[in-house]
Amino acid sequence: MPELPEVETIVRKLRPDLLGKIIQEADLRWARTLATPSPRKFKELITGQQIQEVTRRAKYFILRLSAYSLLIHLRMSGDLFFKEGTINPEKHDRLILRLLSAPSSEHSDRGRSNLVHTAASLVFNDTRKFGRVWLTENPEEVLGKLGPEPFSRRFTPQWLHAALHSKHRQLKPLLLDQTFLAGLGNIYTDEALNLAKLNPLTVSDTVTVKQAETLHGAIRKVLKEGIRRNGASIDWVYRGGEFQNYFRVYDREGRPCPVCGTKIQRIVVGQRSTHFCPKCQEIRNPR
Fold first, then answer.
1. Does some domain include residue 282?
2. What is the pLDDT of residues 131-144, one digit of tens each?
3. What is the rounded CA–CA span in Å between residue 276 and residue 94?
4. What are 96-145's pLDDT values in tens digits?
């Protein structure tokens, strides 16, 4: 599943192509891709909307339109492509937004007929059909339960320590909980815990102030590095990233820890594959 760095990479890549474009038509090719509203209402409301902002919240891709917001969650296998010219839909294309350039000021008085510049499309492709799309006037109806962004002002070492102590859960599943902290997934949680020298099985309310400070810095560091490397390309659904070449522990079972040389172990925590160094991340006794 794409995590915060992968979604941020897609946003940065698509933003220049999408800003200012007008949605001429929505071709919904699999109705269940749409979470809300109904397919008929969706096509009616989105037609003629101009894309005014391209951003994200956690793992959600957000197009802020003239009067609505279009939210897309890629889930396990979703991907977004900008394609110029006329296209033929492919097998796993679930939603195609056909786009037109906004009229230049010198042509603005000639009416909508002058919108036809180079045709283009935003394509949501999703092999496993888990991805979802929302068109809403109030994005908080979808995003409101998310925890803070790792790069937000709210996410401080002090907040993290207090939040960890408000729970009694193992660190790995807690950090994956999007209502606790938004944007982390399996890869970056394993990498951050390793960098912070914290075992994924550590119970959250045993983390010290110093450990919370270290974990806070580790989370931001691995996410920044992931974004700098354009995310990780570890499956055929991802493209262009190179962070996988710099993993410390993730997907490195049996290989030496880059710090101490101990073999990386893989366990299952909260039904998620988890990688760690048993020496660097040895569980310490609680306070």
1. no
2. 999 999 999 999 99
3. 37
4. 999 998 776 554 454 444 544 568 999 999 999 999 999 999 999 999 99
- Asked if 46 contacts 26 with a C-beta cutoff of 8 angstroms, the reply is yes
CA count, 13 A, side-chain hemisphere, 195:
23
- How far CA 281 is from CA of 128, 201, 208, 214, 273, in Å, comes to 35, 10, 15, 13, 16
Angle, vertex CA 192, rays to CA 262 and CA 13, nearest 5: 125
Q: Is 90 buried (19+), middle (13-18) or exposed (0-12) by CB count in 10 A?
A: exposed
Give residue 273's identity as a one-letter amino acid code: S
Q: What domain range includes position 116?
A: 4-143
Residue 246 is given by DSSP the state G
pLDDT tens for 26-54 read 999 999 999 999 999 999 999 999 999 99
Same domain assignment for residues 245 and 114? no
Query: CA torsion sign, 230 to 182 to 71 to 101?
Result: negative
Question: What SS3 state is found at 32?
Answer: helix
Angle in degrees, CA 120, 123, 129, rounded to 5: 170
Instruction: Please give the model's pTM, rounded to 2 decimal places.
Output: 0.90
Residue 137 phi, psi (nearest 5): -80, -20
Handedness of CA 144, 145, 146, 148 (dihedral sign): positive
The CA radius of gyration of the chain, in Å to the nearest whole number, is 21
Do residues 202 and 103 share a domain?
no
Catalytic residue numbers read: 2-3, 59, 272
Report the 10 Å Cβ neighbour count for 262. 14
